[in-house]
Amino acid sequence: VRAGANGGRAGARAVVKLIPEMKRDGVEPDLAIASALISAFGVLGSEDNARAMLRAIESSGRATDSKLYVDYMTAMCRCGNYEEAIETFTRAPRTTFTCTAVMKAYAEAMDWKLAEALFEDMRRDGPAPNDHTHSAMLHAYEKSLQWERAVRLLNQLTSEGKAKEIHHNIVLSVLGKCTQWQRAEVLFRDMRELYNIQPSRVTYSTLISAYGRSGKTDLARKVFEQMLARRIPPDDYTFVGLMLGPASEGNFRECSKIATEMKELYDVEHTVHTYNTLIQAADIAGNYDKAVEVYDELLQRGIEPNNTTRELVVAVSKRGANFYDRQQKTAAVASYAAGLVGVMGMALGRW
Description:
Helices cover 75% and strands 0% of the residues.
């Protein structure tokens, strides 16, 4: 069950199919199985099932542990119910792991101040933060675009000898999101020259995205070539980074060209992330029919939409309808609406 819960949506679905077999064989879920089932339900977005499992364990009078509550808070975050994840922390054992889990919930809820307050409490009174806690705090800063605080914390961790590659990567990401590409460039150089951290594919892809978000497409391509020269294979995030520059300008043709390059030259499969970027490019270009077409292709290929996809498609539907209405293209409005309702209908069960 735990293996399935860690195996993405396909693994989680396989876990759910095991439940009738467990009942048939008279296997009562112990704490470890219940915890893993909660994780699987979280992966599938089955909020009610995860909640029912936790309540069954709590009401049974059996002992609980921090792992159970960490898995439940993580599941609620996956389902987008950050408030319940935060509320659960109030009755969970206070350990490094539960504190870190609720900090991740604070991050997703865009409440970096609460995350920071808890982090400072942990550093002062315990339980002691670990590498995952540091990542959670940096992620909270990243989500809320608090790049200066992220840089400050990274400097503290570096001075204490606790900074890891993932911490640098998170700070690279927030710098990129805040269009601080020069600072990202310096951090990337310092990782290699001062801290002897060899950049991984994640590091290169994050720097490429930082350039892309600032419209520095030539610099993004240059780093991409450096990455290949070091024989580091690109992944979908790498190509999303290359697409961000043209996407921000509504250059759908260039984004489509990069998507083709991704598959034909490097044998990297398209993912929900590349499709999201294509939808964004079409949206910015005002090509709403193309955005719906890309979304339809995503569904036809059996790729699961994520929350970003949903937000993009809802925004496209509103802007597209308003655009066609202003143009007084009644027939186009009807065609557009029909197409959108069709693809949205196919995805309702996935959201």
